[in-house]
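PT: before anyone asks, these are the final sequences, not the draft ones from last week. 972 residues across everything. Please model them as a single complex and drop the result in this thread when it's through.
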Amino acid sequence: MMGSENDEESHLHSSRKDMENLVLGDPLTRSDLNGDKSNSGYRSAMSTLSDSRHPSIVVTPADSDPLSAPPSYSDYQTLRSNPIGGDSSYIEPPSYADVIFSPFDDNSEINGSDDGGSRHSHSSDSLSRSPSSLSSDYIKVTVSSPQKEQETTNQMIPGGSTYITYQITTRTNLPDYGGSDFSVRRRFRDVVTLGDRLAESYRGFCIPPRPDKSVVESQVMQKQEFVEQRRLALEKYLRRLVAHPVIRNSDELKCFLQAQGKLPLPTSTDVASRMLDGAVKLPKQLFGEGGGASVVEVVQPARGGRDLLRLFKELRQSVSNDWGGSKPPVVEEDKEFLEKKEKMQDLEQQIINASQHAESLVKAQQDMGETMGELGLTFIKLTKFENDEAVFNSQRGRANDMKNLATAAVKASRFYRELNSQTVKHLDTLHEYLGLMMAVQGAFADRSSALLTVQTLLSELSSLEARAEKLEAASSKVFGGDKSRIRKIEELKETIKNTEDAKNVAIRQYERIKENNWFEVERLDRERRADFLNMMKGFVVNQVGYAEKIGNVWAKVAEETSQYNRESS
Amino acid sequence: MESTEQPRNVSGSMQSPRSPSSLPYLSVSVTDPVKLGNGVQAYISYRVITKTNFPEYQGPEKIVIRRYSDFVWLRDRLFEKYKGIFIPPLPEKSAVEKFRFSAEFIEMRRAALDIFVNRIALHPELQLSEDLRTFLQADEETMDRFRFQETGIFKKKPADLMQMLWDVQSKVSDAVLGKEKPVEESTPDYEKLKHYIFELENHLAEAQKHAYRLVKRHRELGQSLLDFGKAVKLLGASEGEPTGKAFSDLGTKSELLSIKLQKEAQQVLMNFEEPLKDYVRYVQSIKATIADRGTAFRQHCELAETTKLKEINLDKLMLTRSDKVGEAEIEYREIKAESEEATIKFERIVKRMNEEIMRFQEQKTEEMGVAFHQFAKGQARLANSIADAWRALLPKLEASASV
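LR: through. Structure below.
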């Protein structure tokens, strides 16, 4: 019933994983809510907007250069001079790959205004949460049929490594997907790739966290149990992704859900090697040895271990920031941000706490139902016994009384269990939001690292300029100029220009991420409020309904045994 | 000495009919538990108030102070003297130290002791017991003295010693006579009864176990509602409006219901689980009576056999005109008297048991009916108040939602 094999654990642990196992049947997901609650009015209104959506996506086949995929909504507005946050368009961050190979490409036009606009015109009918994607109704993802497959490269080795693939089935009427039913096979590694690529492309967004790699658990748990746990986690993850109004339309996700065969997304090892190239180029850039790195390479945040030099600089920078070195750009806003961040952390704590106690409540309800049922069964046995062995009429009378009690107890027990399965569905909202709070942290982290990048570049710039000044001052003293020195100055000036451009890009990126943060947090706050109110309402209505049913059952027994009423009142 | 007086016609309730002094009555209350003594020696004393118009008693009302071991004394005495009667059971001596003096435990024990004494007072034979009179009237020092006399084998009455000797002897004679199994009654009705009692104990023990668990479940659910309520209130504080107020209302309701659940837990313990426990104890008391009957039966059988043998021996001696005839005749007469007494004892037990069984069944149907009724009422009340409490919250939630 309640995943009884997890009874002991679920009572003790607070991890979402355990709660996932406790979930009965098909948990309500937001995407279901979206699909079910949309109405035709919305649909017709939004169909006009949907025309302005991106052109159909070209999914590059696996063998083409992974770096050029997917091209669609790469945002070059940042490279043009677009007013920051001018219109309400949803400006999406550049994909790393796109920017490298096709800067200033006018091909891909984005107009995210449908999402932005609709957001503002969102009526706050909070109890019936309006679908977050307004241009279509329905997308549902199911993960099933885990299957063992052989690692092809190791076929020579007997008993070579195997892995599990899962069937991912999507049903949708989102126009973007260009299809309504499709199914692919993916392995967990593909999910990791998807997660990593989304994290890069959607900096500043609250991206749902992907399932853990669970290395220890995969060794310790029973294979079947582990595979089932993972299947469930994958399903939950994908459902959250498609529930996200922006990410559901991402090329990465579409690719993942639709592309047959090998997943055509660059894996993290590919990205890592590019980063290394970037790290190699940086010192050249700094020391003016020409062939400076492309501006946007520089603009990506330094990843641990691979971009060592920049990482070192950024660390130094963050330290000097703390010690009041160069001032971060707009202090005021940061204060608001810090407050918001603190608030979010506190909220997360409270959600964790509440979901723990929700788990305990669910267990207590279940136990009550179980024990009530056992009591009922015992009395049924007693009834039969007394009837079989009856010598006196008083025994038959007692047997009858016991039967009434037993029947009621068994009925009540069933009601308790039904009550509980409903309660789980409602209180599961708390667990859902635990995952989403982690996504918020991720979004905030994107912002902080973007800010750090800006500040690093600023301080680089100022030190470069200082050097340039010094060189110029020195060379002016030597009349006629030193040829090599002049060359050095020119190179330095070019580096400065590049760094200047990079700085501007970084600032625009930071601003964009801040905006993404803001939109996302707003959206999340709104959705969370509505979801929590729905949860409370559902929970309470449920309690009322079943309490009434249980009360009736016992009132009947009280009636049947009214001859034994000895109360004076 | 066994009591053979005729049972008195006694009104069962505290209320007297039209002429209060005409119908005989004997009613007792066990009240006012008080903790006395210190440390390990500490114990609870109770006030025992007797109201009666029985001529053997001193006056219409008498109050004495008694402790648990005094009740044990009374029961032991009655068990010894009134073989065949199902002596009402006592509540157990508590095992857990820290639970011994909790308010709930003391109250439950007091109630159980009250029921114990009243059952005796209402029993047609037991109510005439001298030991009962001692228990209800003797001053505390006398009671203490009586109680201390009870321990040890040397304090046993001659009749008990005789019984023990018979047990030993019968085992020896069994061995001598080459019997493997002890003699037992095997009339179909009695077999059925024995089987019934033994099976019943198993069923009831299981029912009582689940009833106790149910009490625990009430407590656990109450606790979890309390914790949930607190957590939800904190969450509301963190969220701010409009959900903040909704969460706060939800949390408060949850805490309120937790209290109701704890109360109901106590009710279920006292009015449902305790009667089931009492039922089990009663059945165990019947088992002890069954054992007594077995012993009495064996005695009766063996004495009858021995008497026969002695008779045969006597006849033989008479035929041979032996000078041992006189001795043998005396022996024969003694054994015959004992055998007759054993038979009377046994038959009395059988008669009593037949009456007792019917009485027991009726009593238990009544008591269980009351217990079931109270349980059902309590559960219905709880469920309804839960429904009412949550229902009252709905308009508040709607209000928060429309903000």
